[in-house]
Write a structure and sequence with these properties.
With 226 residues, this protein is α/β, with parallel strands linked by helices. Helices cover 21% and strands 27% of the residues.
Length: 226
């Protein structure tokens, strides 16, 4: 069984990861985590994730979000329709970015600001159609026995990484990239915080861990981040 599968999905080619859960029943389909589903009708790839799950005889156990920027969340509704029992996990600092937000507006403050700056306000309807989170995270939780939640603000207030020491994997979202890190010049970004978060990751995560970021090159060792 592969440790993970990666698909580029959605508006900006997000790295969406499908991670089969270890130690689960050998019965098929096997449960798996889906991280940052972005495949949607808007980009014509709505069935991309569900098709791979079917092909690999996997079922979506949970939907983990590294953060709630619009390009990472546009496929949640597709996943929930296909797997209604799958719970959506997100850091509590960004719970208001899903669905209609705290004031009944399309999207939250962060996504409205970003989409306005990108002149992509039409995408707000798609953001508003995403379901609200089922589980709010604070950081420090251990999910599904092996996945530790590390709160890594900077790219956004509620950015998190998911670390599996046993499997040697770090799902870093847009916090850590190959030889780089996430931008901090958008609404909710903070340059000082992201450098603190990168320092925390390098202290917490074991050398040799494979990093799976939200965009671009994936599968590099954490030591390759500079």
């Amino acid at each position: 069984m592969e440790k993970f599968y990666c698909l580029q999905t959605g508006v900006f080619g997000v790295n969406t990861y499908i991670v089969p859960l270890e130690g689960e029943s050998a019965a098929l389909p096997r449960p798996a985590l889906v991280v940052d589903p972005a495949a949607c009708m808007l980009t014509g790839d709505a069935s991309k994730i569900t098709s791979l799950l079917s092909q690999k005889k996997l079922t979506c156990q949970a939907i983990l979000l590294t953060h709630t920027h619009f390009d990472h969340i546009m496929g949640i509704s597709v996943m929930k329709k296909a797997f209604p029992d799958a719970k959506v996990y997100v850091h509590k600092a960004e719970a208001g970015e899903l669905g209609c937000g705290a004031r009944g507006e399309a999207g939250g403050i962060i996504n409205r600001s970003i989409l306005s700056s990108f002149e992509m306000e039409a995408v707000l309807d798609g953001v508003a159609n995403q379901p609200e989170a089922d589980v709010l995270l604070s950081g420090g939780e251990v999910l599904f026995d092996d996945w530790k939640v590390i709160h890594t603000p900077g790219h956004s207030p509620g950015s998190v990484c998911y670390y599996n020491e046993k499997s040697g994997l770090l799902l870093s979202g847009d916090t850590m990239f190959y030889h780089s890190w996430g931008r901090t010049d958008m609404q909710g970004g903070n340059e000082a915080q992201i450098f603190e978060s990168l320092s925390l990751l390098k202290k917490t995560v074991k050398p040799g861990t494979i990093v799976l970021p939200g965009h671009d090159h994936f599968g590099f060792n954490i030591e390759e981040n500079r």
